[in-house]
Write a sequence for this structure.
C-alpha cells in the first residue's frame, strides 16, 4: 500500500499533462460497446487547454459514457485517450486520474452529506491522499486560505459549518464544483450542472463556470439549451456515439445534420 | 454560590470532550469496583464479589469488541457479520499460551503437550504451536492473527469492490467456515472442547481473586486505550475520509482517494481491537471453543452497536454493556426467552430510537436543560435566548 517509490503510478505529483500543443485532452477513435450496443462509435474529440466546451446530444448519444471513459470508470474497447500529449489515461484508475488533474462532477449532486461544507472541501484539497498522511494530517494556513477562497468563489462562505446534507439542491451542486476546484484540476468535467436549478441559481452557475474557464479547461454536458447558449463558445454535438458537429452555437444551429437529429426534435 | 460552581462546571464542560468523559467514567467505575471488592467484606451491601468483577471484566471485553464493530460499521459502513472470528482468533492466541502454562499439571501430566494432544496420541506439538509458551509471542499473535485474516479478506473483498449485503454474507460465511474448521480435532486447537483448564497467566493463578481483579483492571485500561485509538482515528482526516466513503464512495474515488486501501486499513485495525478483546476475555471466562466463531455471536455484536448508537463510539460501549447485562439477567430468569427478548429489543430500538441510546442522550439533555437549566443558569443565559 505504501510502495510510493516502487510504483510510478503512485507518485502523484509527477503526472502532469504536456500541453505544448495547446490540447489538454485527446480522445481518438474511441469505441465502447455494451452487449452489442455501441455507446461510443469511433469518437474523436480534442479539448483545448483553458477552453469551455459544451457537449450536447440526445439521450443515449454517449455523453456520460464519454465521461466514464475519460475518468477511468469504463474502459474503451478500442481507441486512445490521453491527458495532454503523453499521459495515457487508459493506464490509470479513477483515483490516479483524479490526482493527475481531472475532476468530475456527477449528474446527481454527490457531496459528503454527514460532513460540513468546510470538511467536504478539506477532503478534496490537492495533496497526498495516502492513509498515514491522512491519519496525522493538519491543515496549514495556506490550505485554510485556499478553502476560504473556494468558499467565496462558490458563494457558500456563510454555510461553512453546516452539514452538506442540509444544503439546498443548488448549493450542493456548487459545493461539488467547489470540491473539484479544491483538487486544483486542469480539466473539469461537469455533468448537467443546472438540472433542477431555479433561474437565479442557473444564472449564478453560468457565471461560475465561465469564470473558471481560462484557468481550467471545462467540459460541460447539458440538456438545457438556454444555458448552453449562455455559456458556450464552442459546442460539440454527439450523436449515436460519435461527433456529429462542432462549432459555435450559431454554426451548430444552422448545421442541417444537427437540425435534423437533435435541435429539430427540440424545436418542434 | 451557584454562579461560581456553575462556571467551574461550565469550564469543565468546555474542556472535556467525549474522550475525557469516557476515560473518566471508566476510571471511576473501575476504581469503585476495585475498592468495593477489596475494602468491604463479604456480606456487606457494598461488597462486590469476584464473580461480579469477572462479569464486569467480560462486559468490558464486549465493549471493546463493540468499538471494533462500530469503527467499521458505524463509520465506514462495512456491515461485518463476522467480527466474532477476529475475537475468537485473539482468544485462541491467548488460549494457546495459557494451555502451555499448564505444564505438567494437566490430567495426563505431560509437560510438553496439552491434554487434548495426548488424548489424540500426538507425540509432538504441531508447528504452529511453536513459540506459544512465550508471552511476547502470544501478544504478537493476538494482534497478527486477526490482522492477517482481516487483511487477506479485505484485499480480496474490497479490491473487487464487493459491498453491502454481499459483503455481510461473506463475512458471515468466513466466521462459519472457521467455526467448522476449529471443530475438527485435526486442526490442533482442541476440537469442540476448545482450550480450557487454564491454571495461570504470567505466573499468577487464574483461580485467585487478586488475579481476577487484576484482569478486570487490565481490561478497563485496554478498553480506555482502544477508545483513545478509535477516537483519534475518527476525529482525524482519516476518519472524515472513512465517513465520506460510507456516504459516497464513488465521490471519494473521483476526489483521488483509494477507498479500497482505506477500507482494508480500518478493517485491519478493527480486527486487531477485536483480537485484543478476545485475548482478555479468555482468561476471565476460562475457556475458548469454536462456539465463539458462531455466526449468531457476530450478529449479537451488531445488535449491541445498533442499540448503543451506530456511529457513536461511547454508544457502542453503552450498547454492549446494557445488552450483555440484560442478557445475564434474562437468561437467569428464563433462558429460552432471551433470543425473543433480544429480537424484541432490536425491533423496539430500530423503531423508537433509530440512533440508539447515544442518539437519545442529546435529546434527554436538552429536555433536562429546558426543565432545570433555566433556574441554574439565569446569569449565563443571554436575554436573546430567554424569550
Amino acid at each position: 500500500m505504501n510502495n510510493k517509490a516502487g510504483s510510478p503510478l503512485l507518485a502523484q505529483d509527477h503526472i502532469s499533462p504536456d500541453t505544448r500543443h495547446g490540447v489538454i485532452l485527446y480522445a481518438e477513435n474511441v469505441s465502447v460497446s455494451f452487449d452489442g450496443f455501441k455507446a461510443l462509435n469511433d469518437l474523436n474529440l480534442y479539448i483545448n487547454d483553458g477552453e469551455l466546451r459544451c457537449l450536447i446530444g440526445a439521450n443515449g448519444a454517449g455523453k456520460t459514457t464519454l465521461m466514464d471513459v475519460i475518468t477511468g470508470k469504463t474502459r474503451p474497447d478500442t481507441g486512445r485517450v490521453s491527458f495532454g500529449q503523453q499521459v495515457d489515461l487508459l493506464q490509470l484508475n479513477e483515483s490516479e486520474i483524479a490526482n493527475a488533474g481531472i475532476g468530475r462532477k456527477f449528474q446527481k449532486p454527490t457531496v459528503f452529506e454527514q460532513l460540513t461544507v468546510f470538511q467536504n472541501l478539506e477532503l478534496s484539497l490537492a495533496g497526498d491522499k495516502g492513509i498515514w498522511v491522512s491519519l496525522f494530517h493538519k491543515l496549514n494556513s495556506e490550505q485554510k486560505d485556499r478553502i476560504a477562497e473556494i468558499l467565496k468563489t462558490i458563494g457558500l462562505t456563510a454555510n461553512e459549518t453546516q452539514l452538506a446534507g442540509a444544503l439546498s439542491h443548488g448549493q450542493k451542486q456548487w459545493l461539488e464544483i467547489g470540491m473539484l476546484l479544491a483538487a486544483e484540476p486542469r480539466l473539469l468535467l461537469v455533468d448537467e450542472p443546472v438540472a433542477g436549478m431555479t433561474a437565479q441559481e442557473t444564472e449564478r452557475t453560468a457565471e461560475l463556470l465561465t469564470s473558471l474557464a481560462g484557468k481550467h479547461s471545462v467540459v460541460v454536458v447539458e440538456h438545457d439549451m438556454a444555458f448552453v447558449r449562455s455559456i458556450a463558445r464552442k459546442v460539440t454535438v454527439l450523436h449515436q456515439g460519435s461527433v456529429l458537429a462542432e462549432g459555435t452555437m450559431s454554426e451548430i444551429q444552422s448545421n442541417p445534420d444537427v437540425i435534423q437529429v437533435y435541435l429539430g426534435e427540440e424545436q418542434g | 454560590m451557584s454562579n461560581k460552581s456553575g462556571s467551574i462546571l461550565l469550564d469543565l464542560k468546555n474542556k472535556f470532550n467525549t474522550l475525557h468523559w469516557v476515560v473518566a467514567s471508566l476510571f471511576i467505575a473501575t476504581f469503585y469496583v476495585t475498592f468495593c471488592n477489596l475494602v468491604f467484606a463479604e456480606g456487606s451491601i457494598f461488597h462486590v464479589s469476584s464473580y461480579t468483577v469477572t462479569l464486569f471484566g467480560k462486559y468490558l471485553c464486549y465493549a471493546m469488541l463493540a468499538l471494533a464493530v462500530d469503527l467499521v460499521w458505524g463509520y465506514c459502513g462495512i456491515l461485518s457479520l463476522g467480527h466474532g472470528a477476529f475475537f475468537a482468533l485473539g482468544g485462541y492466541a491467548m488460549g494457546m499460551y495459557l494451555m502451555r502454562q499448564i505444564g505438567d499439571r494437566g490430567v495426563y501430566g505431560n509437560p510438553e503437550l496439552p491434554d487434548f494432544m495426548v488424548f489424540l496420541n500426538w507425540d509432538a506439538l504441531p508447528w504452529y504451536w511453536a513459540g506459544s509458551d512465550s508471552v511476547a509471542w502470544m501478544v504478537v499473535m493476538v494482534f497478527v492473527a486477526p490482522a492477517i485474516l482481516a487483511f487477506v479478506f479485505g484485499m480480496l473483498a474490497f479490491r473487487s469492490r464487493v459491498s453491502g449485503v454481499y459483503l455481510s454474507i461473506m463475512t458471515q460465511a468466513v466466521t462459519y467456515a472457521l467455526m467448522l474448521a476449529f471443530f475438527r480435532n485435526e486442526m490442533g486447537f482442541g476440537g469442540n472442547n476448545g482450550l480450557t483448564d487454564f491454571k495461570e497467566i504470567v505466573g499468577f493463578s487464574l483461580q485467585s481473586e487478586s488475579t481476577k481483579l487484576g484482569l478486570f483492571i487490565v481490561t478497563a485500561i485496554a478498553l480506555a486505550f482502544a477508545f483513545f485509538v478509535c477516537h483519534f482515528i475518527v476525529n482525524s482526516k482519516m476518519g472524515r475520509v472513512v465517513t465520506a466513503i460510507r456516504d459516497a464512495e464513488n465521490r471519494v474515488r473521483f476526489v483521488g482517494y483509494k477507498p479500497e486501501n482505506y477500507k482494508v486499513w480500518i478493517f485491519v485495525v478493527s480486527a486487531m481491537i477485536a483480537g485484543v478483546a478476545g485475548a482478555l476475555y479468555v482468561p476471565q471466562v476460562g475457556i475458548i471453543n469454536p462456539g465463539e466463531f458462531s455466526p449468531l455471536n457476530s450478529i449479537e455484536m451488531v445488535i449491541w452497536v445498533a442499540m448503543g448508537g451506530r456511529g457513536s463510539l461511547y454508544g457502542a460501549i453503552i450498547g454492549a454493556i446494557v445488552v450483555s447485562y440484560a442478557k445475564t439477567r434474562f437468561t437467569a430468569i428464563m433462558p429460552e426467552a432471551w433470543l425473543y427478548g433480544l429480537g424484541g429489543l432490536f425491533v423496539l430500538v430500530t423503531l423508537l430510537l433509530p440512533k440508539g441510546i447515544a442518539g437519545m442522550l442529546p435529546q434527554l439533555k436538552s429536555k433536562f436543560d429546558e426543565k432545570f437549566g433555566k433556574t441554574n443558569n439565569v446569569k449565563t443565559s443571554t436575554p436573546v435566548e430567554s424569550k
